[in-house]
Amino acid sequence: MKRKSTKFPRTVGLILTTGLLSFGTLAACGDGDGAATGGGCQLTFLASADRPQAEQDGWKEVLAEFSSEYDCEVTAEFQGAWDEITQQVTAAQIAHEPIDLFITSTATRDLAKAGLIMSLDNCIAGFEDRFIDSAMEPYNFGSKQWAVPMSSTDTSAIVYNADMFKELGIDPPTTYEELVAAGKTIRDAKGIVPMLHQGSSPWYWGMWFFGAFGQESGNQSVQRTEDFLKGERRFDSPEEIAALADLAKFTEDGLLDQTTMATDLEGMRAALVQGKTAMIYVLTPELINLRAAGPDFEIGIFQFPRVLSDPAIRQEVGGGPENGLAIASFTEPDNLEAACQLVEYVSRPGGAASILEPIEPLVPSVKSVPVTQTEPLAPQLNSQFIPNTVEFLDWIWPGQINDAVRDAITGVMFDGVDPAEAAAAVQEAFDRLVAEEDYQFDWWADWDGAQWAKVEFPSGMKIEVG
Amino acid sequence: MRQRGLRGGIGRVGAYGVMAVCVVTTLFPLIWMVSGALKSGQEFYSNIWGLPQDLTWANFARAWAEGGLGQKFANSIIVTAGTMAIVLPVTSLAGYALASIEFPGRRAVYVYLLLGIMVPFGVIAIPVFTVVVQLGLLNTLPGLILVYSAQSLPLGVFLMRSFFASIPRELEEAGLVDGCTLLGAFFRVVLPLAKPGLVTQLIFTGTTVWNEYFMASILLHREALQTLPLGLVTFTSKNGIEFPELFAASAIVTAPLVILYLIAQRQFIAGLSAGAVKG
Amino acid sequence: MFTLQRRRRLTAWAMCAPAVMLATGFIFYPLARGAWISLHQWDGFSAAMKWFGLRNYANVAADGIFWRALGNTLIFAIAVTVAKNVLGMFLATLLNRRLVGRGLFRTATFLPVVMSFVVVGILWSWIFNPTFGLLDSGLRMLGLDAWVQGWLSDPRIALGSVIAVDVWKWTGFHVVVLLAGLQTIPAELLEAAAIDGASKPQIFRKITLPQMMPVLSFSVLMSLTGAFVSNYDLVYVMTGGGPRHATEVALTWIMNAAFQNHAVGKANAMSIILFVCVAAAGALQLRVMMARSGGR
Question: Are B200 and C29 in contact (CB < 8 Å)?
Fold first, then answer.
């Protein structure tokens, strides 16, 4: 006993010593990387660390090329998760950290509203036609371009087990009625739930509404949403209610059941791969992950079904680019020209190819980059889905409305809530948001000259277009 | 006697039954994690619960390289050891003073520190960040170490105080009479008796700090300074998780904790049976 | 005598000073700052905060989901505190006997404690998964089809499932702490009581429990406050607060308000309310336990 009791303080002593030593020696390490080495300038580029290794390597490669070509050292930092970028950038601003460019994601509107990013129109004037329009649009609001898309663009599709469909003699459905019939055949023949959704992640419920409302609004869903957020339209209007009523039918008709509420992205994928469901409604990057999971059957895609019979109405769904490249507004004024030059450089055919091709883009946001050859469904996505893709509505509406719409959707689907009541609850959430947070959709309308001066990219800079 | 023996026998069987159930339910995740780390990306989805068909050891190497775990390992060790180096002495001193010395403001100090247990740290992250920036400690490991130390401190003080309070006063007084100063008595007589408290802290705070993600993500913006939990993010993304690599990385991250526990628990339990009062 | 007294005081103050300074700098000053923020309307990144008085508190009071989340937190806290400590005490008593293989058992029960929340969360949400989950298929295999549940999808059950996982994750820790306490009870005391003819329950109540009070109050306080201030990760990974807010706890809702919805002023108002609730619960618990342990 004695022997053991003397042993312990030694362990503690060791830890204490290492701890104190490290504490002492490391106290100065924070400002170690402050010194400039490049002859010309120095830029810092920030992106989340959760992107594929190949993509990170692509960025590093192109940034290194830029460094040597323009005599401007670029430090690339990969840090955190994609949805933390707002925090990271805010933190950098408070701490006066040198961040010049970064990859933004879904929160671009928040960043712009907070005055954290530059409007790029004067920067990109010479090369803005390099990007596809549908990928530029989500970063364009208040008649300004706030970021440029450097990624693949997502859209939404229903992925199905094509072998199972063939075996049961089902054709990929177009209308909702056909979908219900297909679901019934699958349920009867296989005893499985026909469709599954990643219901345990709060963010993905909205896509159901985008699909239904895209049609119910007469393909005006973005416009209607903006009107709603401006306070010029109520969410409990007939079109919104009709869209929620469409969604309620998915559970009534047995396409989805409550198991969906406890399913996450990977669980949904596993269920499809194992033949425990036949259809999943997903964002298209899922195709890549699904292939990697190695299903032993063919997969196919079809569009969110027609809920209206009018053939003039397109089957619109939500989409948007994965990454946008933005310039921080708190960057050193002297760095602006180099930062913009970097935006130009990475979107040249050579740069864009190095960054985008490793991720096998289904829908490249830069025109010069070819669509991936490895995914056989990519051509169908580009020809059939992309023309019917509008901006994700949840990029337009604030988080509180996203929460409310999710509650409305799950309410009508699983809790027997009346669609009109559910829609009214969203309207209430909006009213609350205005009252509590002074929410204003078109904040840009009230900005004064001083505010714009801080974020507007100066004109007349010499940007070389290669 | 016979009846007692029979009951004891049944109790023994029951005890082993309970133990077996516990061991199975707690070992299973570890086995699942390691076996998941050895599956290919495909097999993970087709064979969720089974053992791996082919052992893909390469997952570990890939996880190590892609996550940059070598550097992060060093950083995590520094941060954890640094935190312990602050927390253990600071809580011991405060705990002892609060338990054994009469002084004005004693109760106020105790209540004040205790209130710290009840603060949800995630929510005060923004002000904490501001403090760290003002101290010029953003993007430094000492900054993170100070935050971790402060946040694990209230619980530690509470724990140490209750240990010191349970130590018979006569022992300390004997130390004082022997000519020790107050601090001398503290170090020679009292502290060794509070070992279980120290080990409890070592295990609990060590585990918490080792696995902490949120504060680290806010306070460290340099890849070279990141800790292990930040490295795990590499294997998740908006579009899904790279399971085998994530599990391999998690196994790598968890292993030192298991080893630390295996070392600490022997001394923990052994030190305990050496008991205060007997000594 | 006077100087000795004075030196004792100074020493005591000096001993407490580092703890007080650290706690002030990194806990209470930020908390006070949070309280200050809670009186403003702020999105977390704009330079200016707008004075809002107590309106954030009024808004929180009107937020039904917050109160539901607080209710869930309370259920969560009581359930895990009782379960972890009763189960922990039971297993610790078991381990305090001379049993073959108790070393393995002790180590095994502790493993969940050191595993990261991500792995634990994924593991359990897959065990509970309705389509390919281990739990449901196990029940079906045993012919207990009627027991098959939407463990995480049924709003009536989901909170219970999450609580069970939290208990599973932390019980090992409490076992170790409580076992440590049990082993510090002097054997002489127990033997003397046994010789005096006390029954086992009597010994437990009269000797074991009072002797265990410091350790037990630590264990209870930890599980209780932990349920209030640190159950975010597990709930977030397992359910994200769903289905339909059935597992929403105060922390998930607050973090959502602060970091997704950028209602930082309101989020701080919620955390101040939460802090007051925890402080009240903690004070009550300490009062009860200290009264029982003879006012220590």
Answer: no
